[in-house]
Amino acid sequence: MLMEPGHTAPILYIFRNFDSPSHVLQTFVSPQARDAYLSIRALNIELARIPDLVSNPTVGALRMQFWRDNITRTFADTPPKEPVAILLHNALTSLKGRHPGISTNVMKGWFMKVINTREQYIDNRPYTNMEALEAYAENTYSTLMYLTLAALPLNSMATDHVASHIGKAVGITAVLRGLPLIAFPPPPNHHNNNLAFGGGRQGAVVLPLDVMAEAGVKEEEVFRQGAEAPGLKDAIFTIATRANDHLITAKEMLKNLQQGKDAGHDFEHEGEEGHEYAEQSSTSRSQVDDIERGFGVLMPAVPTRLWLEKLEKHDFDIFRPELRARDWRLPWKSYWAYSRRTL
To answer: For the chain, how many structural domains are there in total?
Structure first.
C-alpha cells in the first residue's frame, strides 16, 4: 500500500538531501516492503541528524524520546501526523493485511534498540574499542536490515546472518564517512555536506580509542593538521579494513548459501530476541529461497563497497572532497549486482 504523492514528498526530500544511496536502492526492495524500507531509512536519517540540530545532549535526548513516543503510537495504531510515522503505519497495516495474526512486537523492539543506541552516542563520544564500534553498527545498521526483512516478512537465520555482517560494514563505514563533519562541524544552521571543513565549532574524533592509541593518533593533532595528523591514515586503514572484512565474509557466506552449503560459521546472535528460527527453515533449499527473497534488502553492501574502494584509491585520506560526492556509478553497479545476485 503506497502513500499518496503528497505524503511521500517529505520523505523523498530527506533521501535526496541526506541519503541518496538508500533512495537508489529502494528499487531493489520488494514493493510489498518498500513503504517499510523508506520509513525505516528515513527514521535513521532523522536520528542521525539530531546531534547536528540540537544545542546540547539534553535537548537531543528529548528528540530521541519524541521518536520513541512516535514509534509507540504508530505500533498502537494511533500514529502522529508526521510523515515517517504515517508511512510506517501504512507499511504495518499492509503487513498485517497480508498476514493476519502476525506479531510486530519484535519490530517495535528493534526500533527501540536503534533509538537507544543512537542516544548512547548522541554526544559524539569515541568508541572505547573496535568491538564497541561493531556493536554500535550491529544495533543500528544491521538492525535496520532486520526490520526491513521482517516487513517482507522473512524470518530466516541465513538472511539475518548475512545482513548482520553487511550492517556492521555499513555502520563502520558510516562512522568513517561522518568523521570529517564531526571533527570539523560547519557553522550552526548550515547542514550541508559540501561545506568546507573548519566552521569554528569544537568537534570530536569519534574513532575507537584502542585503534587511535595503537596508531598514535591524538585528537588535538587531528584538529591542527587534519589528514596529515600522525597515525590518522593508519587508523582509518585499520577501521576500513574491518568494514571490508565484514563485506568479504558476507560475500563468501552468500555464495555458500546460494549453493545450498553451510554459511561457514555460526550466527552469533542466534537465540536473541527476534532471532529465533524454526528448525525447518535451516534446510539448504529453504536457505536458498530465503536468500533470493531477501536479496534486495542486502543491497547496501554495494554503495559501501564502492565507497571503501574510493577511500583506498585516495590513500585513506578521510578528508578528500571526492569521498563526500555522490557516486554516479551506484545505479548501474547496483543493477549489475542485483541482476547477478552478487555483492
So the answer is: 2
